[in-house]
Amino acid sequence: MIKKLIFFFLGVLTLMGVAAGSLWAWLPSDKDIRGCMVTKMYQVELCPGSKNYVPLKQIAPILQKTIILTEDSNFYNHKGFDWDAIEKNAKEGWETGVFKRGGSTITQQLAKNMFLNKDRTFIRKGLEAIITDRIEHTLTKKEILERYLNVVEFGKDIYGVKAAAKYYFKKSPAELTVVEASFLAMVLPNPVKYSQSYYRKELTPFARKRLGRIVDDLFQYHRISQEEYDIASAQVAYFFQPEPPPEELTSDEAIPTLEELENLESQEQLESSEEAE
């Protein structure tokens, strides 16, 4: 009996070793992380140096600041995992009975986008943690942010900041304004849903409120100046809506009525005939 148990546990250990070896061989190498690839989740080409890849220096600083503020405010201070945020979410979950999804760091999101699928399993979460750690040890923070901005989804079939800036605003990523950067940040939690605002050319009250809150946070956390805040705040009210009418004309500039135009034309014709005589 003891002999059988020993062989059983040896068999289990062997299988675990084989599984661990296979897993280790499957995990992305430093070369995989740095090189060109087609992402696992959305089948998007990610290739630094290619024509569709935008270096960080060609992406508006305000977009970089806005994405970090809204998606991962401790990005430059953690090693891939925001333990403070994890602890806070867990505590709130135990107290309320509702455990929130999301809260992943930019590095975790990049790991998912590059190498994983949409499965919500413990195995996938474990792989995500291992790959996140590898990415943090392979790339600099700026390289992580650069790759993230080139692969993240901004709407249905809209991947990367170059495609998003062109599609929504007909401009390059370097030209984005405060309110435009705030809009792109706004759609990230649910890009397919929130990007519907663009198709309708109208923000829902909730979306407009969220857009305004992002602009407020940018100012509150000293990412923009008072002047930039004033301009962006004014734009929020009319974002994706017709511009407000011009200021009321003075009496001297008032637009003439149709009757006045006809009288004016008759008077000009009369004066012309008198001059001809």
TrEMBL record:
<dbReference type="GO" id="GO:0009252">
    <property type="term" value="P:peptidoglycan biosynthetic process"/>
</dbReference>
<dbReference type="InterPro" id="IPR023346">
    <property type="entry name" value="Lysozyme-like_dom_sf"/>
</dbReference>
<keyword id="KW-0808">Transferase</keyword>
<keyword id="KW-1133">Transmembrane helix</keyword>
<keyword id="KW-0812">Transmembrane</keyword>
<dbReference type="GO" id="GO:0071555">
    <property type="term" value="P:cell wall organization"/>
</dbReference>
<dbReference type="InterPro" id="IPR036950">
    <property type="entry name" value="PBP_transglycosylase"/>
</dbReference>
<keyword id="KW-0472">Membrane</keyword>
<protein>
    <submittedName>
        <fullName>Penicillin-binding protein</fullName>
    </submittedName>
</protein>
<dbReference type="Pfam" id="PF00912">
    <property type="entry name" value="Transgly"/>
</dbReference>
<keyword id="KW-0997">Cell inner membrane</keyword>
<dbReference type="InterPro" id="IPR011812">
    <property type="entry name" value="Pep_trsgly"/>
</dbReference>
<feature type="domain" description="Glycosyl transferase family 51">
    <location>
        <begin position="50"/>
        <end position="201"/>
    </location>
</feature>
<keyword id="KW-0133">Cell shape</keyword>
<dbReference type="InterPro" id="IPR001264">
    <property type="entry name" value="Glyco_trans_51"/>
</dbReference>
<keyword id="KW-1003">Cell membrane</keyword>
<dbReference type="GO" id="GO:0016020">
    <property type="term" value="C:membrane"/>
</dbReference>
<keyword id="KW-0328">Glycosyltransferase</keyword>
<keyword id="KW-0961">Cell wall biogenesis/degradation</keyword>
<dbReference type="GO" id="GO:0009274">
    <property type="term" value="C:peptidoglycan-based cell wall"/>
</dbReference>
<dbReference type="GO" id="GO:0016763">
    <property type="term" value="F:pentosyltransferase activity"/>
</dbReference>
<keyword id="KW-0573">Peptidoglycan synthesis</keyword>
<dbReference type="GO" id="GO:0008360">
    <property type="term" value="P:regulation of cell shape"/>
</dbReference>
